[in-house]
Amino acid sequence: MIRVRTVKESQLVERKKTTKKVSAPVAKVPTEPTEVDIPATEVTPDSIDLSVPEFSIPISATSDGEEMYLRRHTGVADAPEPTALLTDERLLDIKVKRLAPEGFWQEFVYAITFHTVHLGDSRRASARKAIDARIASPLVGDARFVPVLTRKGGVGKTTTTVLLGMALARIREDRVIAIDANPDRGTLADRIQRETRDTIRSVVAKAPAINSFSEFAKYVSHDVTRLHVLASDSDPLISQSFDEFDYNIVADITSRYYSIVLTDCGTGIVNSVMRPILQRADGLVIVSGGSVDEARLASETLTWLESNGHAELVANSIVVINTATQNTVLVKLDEIENHFRSRVRDVVRIPYDAHIAAGSVITWDKLSKLTRDSASLLAGLVAEGLPSTK
User: Fold this and answer.
1) Radius of gyration of the chain (CA)
2) Residue 216: is its pLDDT beyond 50?
3) For residue range 191-213, what is the model confidence (pLDDT) as tens digits?
4) pLDDT at 348 exceeding the cut of 60
5) Are strands 227-230 and 144-149 parallel, antiparallel or unpaired?
6) How far apart are CA 100 and CA 60, in angstroms?
7) How far apart are CA 165 and CA 159, in angstroms?
8) 209: buried, middle or exposed (CB in 10 Å: 19+, 13-18, 0-12)?
């Protein structure tokens, strides 16, 4: 008679084969399964260690010799962590909000798609942001000095200084100041809301006592763009005594507290004050009117600077053509631009603006958009030409 194993009997045989030790040998396989002793060393699911050890990989070292680590898992590191690893990205659970695009069509698509389709900024917005990025470029080290000069009065030198200063100050995170170094009666401080009657002469007289920014700030005025202005003396008899030594005192003090120092120069480039102004210059802005004689005088200014050891400064300079002066309608401004582009780094036109033409306080928000764009372009070009370290 042939006996067929049941399923239970087959399972029991297989179990015996895989067991290293049993309580007693079995001579005959019964029809019903019997109990067997499972060895204590048998591997069970609970005894398997499924955890992955935490580890760190050293990737670099700081200048102080502290070892940095690349964290692969959360938890406690194998080695002491330096303070530098307590970053905002690691400690703060903050989701970065995506900025909406700028431009009519871009904003419309972004809105109707419930912020899922982002076409990017319009070309105009992208260009503006690119200029702002150039203006905001960081400067490391000492202050940068940028004189604004011309050999002819009445071409908008002081106005250009104010527009340039405002365009820089409203974007940059550091401090910008404009100094009125005109040995004649300067009007720079009259172009913003004046907050003090102190002048550049006051700073020279009180220089030994100025040991902090808060102390120096008492002598300057500032507007909503955060541009600071140091006025010149209103009395021309007193202002004539402002010389090379005095300018160096003021320049040394302002270099402690400001990153960019603009200097509104007088019309006399052979004045003694011009020597330290040009020696300290890291950039240069030459202002020309839109008439023939004004363009010639501006070009002669470049020639004089080149002949007196400032050729490199000229090559890196920016020429501003103020088209608000008289007789510009009859002049081929493109030809004037072409002439100066052959000699300097770039040329910017400042358009006529009724707000500026009033000759009073200049308010940035009251300027025409074209004027603001021109001033921002000038600021971007000037900032781009300054050395990043000094």
Assistant:
1) 38
2) yes
3) 999 899 999 989 999 999 999 99
4) yes
5) unpaired
6) 37
7) 10
8) exposed
Tokens of 85: 């690893």
- In angstroms, how far is the first alpha carbon of the chain from the final one? 106
Residue 370, CA distances (Å) to 127, 351, 352, 374, 375 in order? 14, 7, 9, 6, 9
**Do strands 221-222 and 227-230 pair parallel, antiparallel, or not at all (unpaired)?**
antiparallel
Q: How far apart are CA 260 and CA 282, in angstroms?
A: 10
Structure tokens at 360: 């009073």
* Nearest of 35, 366, 345, 364 to residue 170 by alpha carbon: 364
Could you give the CA distance from residue 163 to residue 227 in angstroms, rounded to a whole number?
10
Q: Which residues pair with 58 in a beta bridge?
A: 69
**Cβ atoms of residues 131 and 377 within 8 Å:** yes
Question: Which tokens is 20 given?
Answer: 């290293």
Ranges 29-38, 107-116, 194-203, most confident:
194-203
Q: How confident is the model at residue 61 (pLDDT cuts 50, 70, 90)?
A: very low
Residue ranges of domains in the chain, CATH in brackets? 98-135 (no CATH), 139-385 (3.40.50.300)
- In sequence order, the 6+-apart residues with CB closer than 8 A to the CB of 83 are none
Cα 27 vs. chain centroid, distance in angstroms? Answer: 90
Helices (H) and strands (E) in the chain — how many of each? Answer: 15, 10
152, 269 in Cβ contact below 8 A? no
Q: What is the DSSP string of 303-316?
A: HHHHHTT-HHHHHT
Which of 54 and 110 is assigned the larger pLDDT? 110
How many residues make up the chain in this entry?
390
Give the pLDDT confidence score for residue 27 in this predicted structure.
Answer: 46
Tokens of 359: 């000759």
pLDDT, tens only, 286-324: 999 888 899 999 999 999 999 999 999 999 999 999 987
